[in-house]
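User: Modeling request: complex.
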Amino acid sequence: MTYEVVIGLEVHAQLLTKTKLFCACPTVFGREPNLNTCPVCLGQPGTLPVLNRQAVEFAIRAGLATGCSIEAKSVFARKNYFYPDLPKGYQISQYELPVCLKGHLDIEIVNGGRSPSEVNDDKPGKTDGGPGGRAGSPPAITKRIGITRIHMEEDAGKLVHEHPGTRAQDASWVDFNRGGTPLLEIVSEPDMRSPQEAVAYLKKLRSILVYAEICDGNMEEGSLRCDANVSLRPAGQEKFGTKVELKNMNSFKNVEKAIFYEIDRQASVLDEGGRILQETRLWDADKGETQSMRGKEEAHDYRYFPDPDLLPLIVDREWVERVGKTLPELPDAKRARFASQYQLPVYDAEVLASSRGLADFFEACVKEYPQPKKVSNWVMNEFLRMIGNDEARIPSSPLKPVHLAQAMKLVDGGTISGSVAKTVLQTVFETGESPQSIVEKQGLAQISDDGALETALDEVIAASPKEVEKYKAGNEKLIGHFVGQVMKKTGGRANPAKVNELVKRKLSS
Amino acid sequence: MELFDLTIHELADLLKQKKASSREITESVFKRIKAVEPKVRSYVSLAEETALAQAKKADGTAPRGMLHGLPLGIKDNFLIEGTKTTCASRILENYVAPYTATSAQRLLDQGAVVVGKLNLDEFAMGSSTENSGVGITRNPWDLERIPGGSSGGSAAAVAAGECIAATGTDTGGSIRLPAALTNLVGVKPTYGRVSRYGIVAFASSLDQVGPLTKDVTDAAILLNALAGHDPKDSTSLNLPVPDYTKALQKDLKGWKVGIPKEYFIGGTDAEVAKALQTAIETVKKLGAECVDVTLPHTDYGVPTYYILATAEASSNLARYDGIRFGYRNREAKDLTSLYKKSRSEGFGPEVKRRIMLGTYVLSAGYYDAYYLRGQKVRTLIRRDFEKAFEKCDVILTPVSPTPAWKVGEKVSDPLKMYLSDIFTINVNLAGLPGMSLPCGFTQSGLPIGMQLIAKHFEEERMFRVAYAYEQANKWHQRRPKL
Ligand SMILES: [Zn+2]
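Assistant: Request completed. Predicted assembly structure:
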């Protein structure tokens, strides 16, 4: 039977606030266990939460960036359950009345559901190289994915089962550094119909959050976490099938793989006449499969009720407007501007605008070297490869926009060839030295000096009597042989145009 | 009279005139404690050494406020850094507070001397101080009887002269009821007037900190010290605090005192009812006009309270899980049994009863029927008061349907015990300020209290009426014979 897959995503984004959601403890990652704690976030008796206004501002930004309505009044509730990493015995979260409602974002899909932004994938070297890009890419279709709600909540701490000096089976340790860190939970409508669409949505959402400086988007460190609700229904059927919640996917690739796996699993259960259980399944990346974690019958009764220690959150129009003014240009707008302002192909604009770091890098480079299409080619092919398609590495990359501009000027001025420029930039990326100084130090400048080139050519001619004969007989294609040999002799540094000229002159006489 | 018998304002005068030192006052209090504490048992812990050091320091420094150098008792659900805060519960018996409650800090900032931590019903849940995990506190007016609760330790200590004044917390009447049963003045300020930061939470939307004192003036002084905005408590209101001692005037000409008919019907002890009638007459003689008002949803107060308060309590008490602090069962082999055993052994029966009730009313299938409906009734109760205050400045009612009862008398019947708060509970549900002050004695010599209720943040009106009434009587000057 053919099935239609229905996917909805719940994304948790850790906010880039300096302090926690309800106390003044720092949110710095990777410190000594329990260093970022105080009586409030440890749930000591008598402590009370005080809401972090900055976190609210981030929630408003996220809402505005995804077309949500910002609710004038929202309410924090307590979600009650016992777990050692939850100090108060409840998590403060928004429940019935969240801060943002009913938004959307648009994803671009090309044939088969692949999104063009997948060039910016976690697989390095996926771009098919050579300046020029994919001029012939098929046109993308835009699909709108609904966002049900965005709400704020505090994170829990974490359990450490291995600890130096103890036997893991005897004890578990709790680290509350992360406890109380502000999170946004962004819940989508079940609008996605393929794993590729889900990944495109997740990438777009991540890009928006990073653009708006709400979240660093790091999935491996857990600052962006994604759960997927996946169900199948016979093609054409209106009613949704039973959904399964997938957790524990810490990269785009894993999200895609896990959903693919789950679709196959559910399809075979249904094909065999079985029923899908409503349950939570964990993705095991090593085994490449999902495993049941808990069924619905074990589901918690969280006993939600409005937290009496916090007043309702009131967000007035003025605040929303003020926050709106601080919102930077978002991916869709940037893509459109890149296409029109720089006359870039849609494909280039999409790739560059999909990441704020890449877009900023591109624009800084164009400022120094105002030939956008050329810059785009270099950024998309060379720079993306160097950073392994990981925009998080851009700020720490030793290769800066100004370096790329310099290298391109060196090519234009005839100092180095395009192929040497690639080597030079690779060295810049490894050392941070300027292209100019690398060219000088390593003697990579082109040889345009007639004398030196002539000597090299004479040697080549002497070593290839057969080719000389054939060339003279009219086989002009052999010019490439002579140029190539000279290039080889000079380690790629000979000026090819000059050599060309020289061959013609020498062998026509 | 001995120094321990005097009030804050009398002692402050003596200190000012150098007729007494803080050290003498503090020593007098500890001497009294040694004499009567074995009978009264109002303290959970005493801090004689640090108190004498604080007194010595107070004697050597310029006065920092009205409380400078005066020995006060603190209910044992207030955190004071470095000292034990037990809440009279086994689950916190060895808990040392890592920080100081805002309200306690305000008293310390005024130079107050802390005598010790006072007994209470476990986690402030109860009306008699019999639910304490530490032991029962006795009423200084009759040692066979309870002092009221949950601030029973605070009330008994002040009444017995074991401190000059004390702090309490009031969730459904826990300051006003023991004040009434021990001949004291007890004030529950408007919700949001005093910071709850550092007070072990029972029911967050109802809890409020307040003073227990020997007279109205002392209550005004102590509330002046406690009240004010605290950025650490999101429910604390950012409003200026008036000087309550300025509200203390002798006449009530032009004032309207509301008498709600629902609080003056059968079921109240005859002697209590009679004392209240006499009090109403006195108020009239002072120039006030007494008007009939109605609070039609009064009867729903007790059930609504026990739904909302237990719901919040069940959640507030979840943090006592044996993981980070407090009592932990050492035999438990897995997480679930660690929780179950630690909590079963750490909490007393009344606390468990309320946790179970609260868990039930919040559970998915019952939320709408109980919790949500409770919130709606709470709104109706609040509106009742708003309407009544269109006709009067303050409302006058009884505090307790009976004088202090005998130890053990209501223990086996929780519902009967819950009805002791019938006249005080709705004030908490409405978030209003209320106070209890002495208004007579029974034939057998047990104190009777009356309650004054005012509009939100208008504590001054209750103080005015209370002070005028107090000046017309001498009830507050009686001391128990111990
Ligand atoms: Zn903290």
